[in-house]
Amino acid sequence: MIHRMQRLILFKGLGFSLLELLICVCIISIISTIALVAYHGAVDSAAIKTGLPWVLGALNHYPQAAREEGKIITVEFLLGTTKVRVTRDSGTGEPASTVVNVGGDNLLKKKLVFRGYKWPDGAHKPASFTFYPQSKPSGGKVTFGTAFAEAEIWLMGNRVVSNL
After folding, report:
1. Residues 75, 88: contact at Cβ < 8 Å?
2. For the whole prediction, is pTM greater than 0.85?
3. 53/103 Cα distance (integer angstroms)
4. Cα(2)–Cα(72) distance, integer angstroms
C-alpha cells in the first residue's frame, strides 16, 4: 500500500511547470508566424504568375502602336496601383494622356500593384517605358507584386518581359 506522502511525490512529478508551458507556447507561436508568412508568399507568388501575363499583354501592345501611329508613346507606371498613364506625342501640338488599368479589378483584389522602379543609370525619375516609332524603347525595371512576393518587368528589345 502506498502511503499518502509517496502519492504526493508521484503526482508532483507528472505535470509541466509554468516555465515549460511558456517555452512551448513561444516555440509554437514562432513556428506559426514563419508558416503564415511562407503561406502568404506562396499565395501571392501564384497570384503574380497568373496576373503577370495580363499586364505583359497589355504593355506589349504599345511598341506596335507607336510604330503604326508614328507617335512617341510613354507609359508611366502609377505606383501603388495597376494603372498606367499613357501619353501619345506626335511632336506637333499638345500630347494626349489617358490613364489605363492594365491589370483589371481582379488583380487589385489580390493586392497586386506596381511597387517600385529602378533606372539603369540610377536616376530618380518617374517609372516609365517610352516607345519610339523608329528606334529602340527606353525604360528601367518596374517591380510588380505584393509585400510578400514580387516580379520585375523591363524592356528587352521591343518587348516588355518579366523574370518569371
Report:
1. no
2. no
3. 9
4. 96
Is the Cβ–Cβ distance between 56 and 161 less than 8 Å? yes
Task: Please choose, from the candidates 109, 103, 104, the residue with its C-alpha nearest in 3D space to the C-alpha of residue 144.
Answer: 103
Would you write out the chain's pLDDT as a tens digit for each of its 164 residues?
556 666 655 555 567 788 889 999 999 999 999 999 899 888 888 888 887 888 888 888 888 888 888 888 888 888 888 888 888 887 777 778 888 887 766 666 667 888 888 776 666 667 788 888 888 888 888 888 888 888 888 888 888 888 87
As a whole number of angstroms, the distance between CA 145 and CA 116 comes to: 10
Highest CATH level, class, for 47-162 = alpha beta
Cell of 152: 520585375
- In the chain, the amino acid numbered 123 is A
Cα–Cα distance between 164 and 149 in angstroms, integer?
12
Residues 124, 119: Cα–Cα separation, whole Å: 7
Q: Which of 92, 57, 77, 74 is nearest to 133 (CA)?
A: 74
Domain residue spans in the chain?
A: 47-162
